[in-house]
Design brief:
Strand content: under 5%
Helix content: over 70%
Distance between the termini: 17 Å
Radius of gyration: 21 Å
Oligomer: single chain
Structural class: mainly alpha
Length: 181
């Protein structure tokens, strides 16, 4: 299987994560970051909040989830991930047969642990492309909803929990529709 170029890199992921943290931390200290993001998002995504806060947020969440799902599909080696999941499932089935044999179970667990770094490298690659934009959106959400007086979605969700719940729902639907591993 040719996974070259789609495996990802922990080093690059680490750099992106540090950059995201730096942006989040410097948001209020370096006005140009905040002002640039507001200049772009206020007239685009902000218009949806002017229309209707709840429905606007649902549309934004759907679009962000669609973009991240598309990156997951096309920035990862889906064929390799499917194969690895099949192998893990087969190994789990085989492990059930050896419940009374701890030494054999340890062998299988060692084999399963070998998959963890490979799977992480393959599945974390889309974060390289989406990490910083999502942090910028989250910081923008914080500013916008603080200005609005922290509205409650469906009467009890703050913006973060609403985003989380809706993105999980949209992600599970989109992953099935787009056949993303």
């Amino acid at each position: 299987m040719n996974t070259q170029g789609k495996e990802g890199s922990f080093k690059l992921l680490f750099v992106i994560m540090l950059s995201s943290l730096a942006i989040a931390g410097l948001w209020d200290k370096i006005p140009s970051i905040k002002n640039s993001v507001h200049a772009i998002l206020n007239p685009t995504a902000g218009v949806l909040f002017d229309w209707n806060v709840t429905w606007g947020m649902i549309v934004i969440i759907f679009i962000l989830t669609l973009i991240t799902t598309l990156f997951q599909k096309y920035a990862t080696d889906q064929e390799t991930l499917r194969e690895m999941k099949k192998e893990q499932k087969a190994m789990s089935e085989e492990m059930k047969q050896y419940k009374g044999h701890p030494e054999k179970l340890m062998e299988f667990q060692k084999k399963q642990f070998q998959y963890i770094p490979k799977m992480m490298k393959l599945t974390m690659r889309p974060m390289i492309f989406t990490g910083i934009p999502l942090i910028l959106f989250f910081r923008w959400f914080m500013d916008v909803f603080n200005t609005m007086g922290n509205p409650k979605f469906f009467g009890f969700f703050n913006w973060f929990w609403f985003y989380l719940v809706m993105s999980i729902i949209f992600s599970s639907i989109l992953r099935k529709v787009l056949k993303v591993v």
